[in-house]
What does this fold into?
Amino acid sequence: MVFKFATVALTEDPLSFDSDSPPPSRSWAVCLPYIPGCSFKKPTTSRQAATGPSLHQTIQSSEPGCSCCRPSESLQFPGSDLEVHQGRLKRFAFRELQAATNHFSDEKIVGRGGFGRVYEGLLADGSRVAVKRLAKHSHFEMRELHAEVKVGNMPPHQNLVPVLGFCSSSELKEYMLVYSLMLNGSLSSFLGGPPSMKLSLDWPTRKKIAVGAARGISHLHDHGVIHRDIKPHNILLGENFQVSIGDFGMAIFMDKDEEKGVSKEASFFSLSFLRTQIGGTYGYLDPEYSKSGMCSGKSDVYSFGVTLLELISGCSAQRRISPPGLLLPEWAGMLVKDEEWGRLVDADMPSGYKESEVKRMIQLALLCTHLSPERRPDMTEVVQILEGAVSLEKRWEEY
It folds into this structure.
């Protein structure tokens, strides 16, 4: 495999439905696989990496064509032909979405990122929707667009953001995705930052979010999909705090033969490593994946574990904790070793909580962020532990 380098400016956080300010602008050298015939100059910067150390990697593969180093047959992108994945999704007319968003008014913008902008819209039938409008049309942006449509055609699940349809107009050079609007935005708007800037979540709501997110990721894994960018920005909340996983542009798909194995044996998928260019966000990225380029379902498990620690502590995973300047999983592990469980609990969390429940969730988070992927539970087990159907005592004793 041949690689070429691009220097990208990381000026924005990945698309989300909140108004958090972007991190400071930085530039990083990112190594990307060279695809013959592809004329791209820059990747989708915010989805390749976020603020923090460079994800500059050179990953040599002796394998002639693993399913992640090149698009699978169903992800070849012939121009703008989204109909190849249309399935049950509606194809919206450009004028229909233009009217729904008041001509894409700036007042309707609810999110923005490297992909483009997200607008709140009101369809003619009264449905409130989120319209994601593509800003660029490179190979990478089109791949993300097709990945979103492909996930949208999976069997629906209550914990995945419903993809309602798309707009594809090569004549107007407009490509958009339409989703159900999640009225409470992303989980990130409730976590991190100074107390005066964040919204508070009580413990029952945090538990509900943890279980819902785990179920959504588990559903993806059951269908051979690795999300690769699990974090609070991509966990969206409905009016009653129902949870939906969103932003599938980074997702990779197992080959069809492998997918058959997934439905029969969850552990097969969890430990089926795929070699791919690095994708994800600093702070949530599986260290083993970032070093080797080998991705599996356990990479999502790691990211989910970090997200759990954020949900419990209210601390951002993208900021080193000082003192002693550790990343969130390292800091949590240090406190647990010293039996200082209480220091991991968000001081701004309203009302009370059961210490045993918090301790159990902290233990699960640390198991999910174990440096060895083989030592992490798969998402099916994570859901069972969160629901109380399975004990984690034996796993914790071996931690």
In short: The chain has two domains: 73-180, 187-398. Residues 203-222 form the longest helix (20 residues). The radius of gyration is 20 Å.
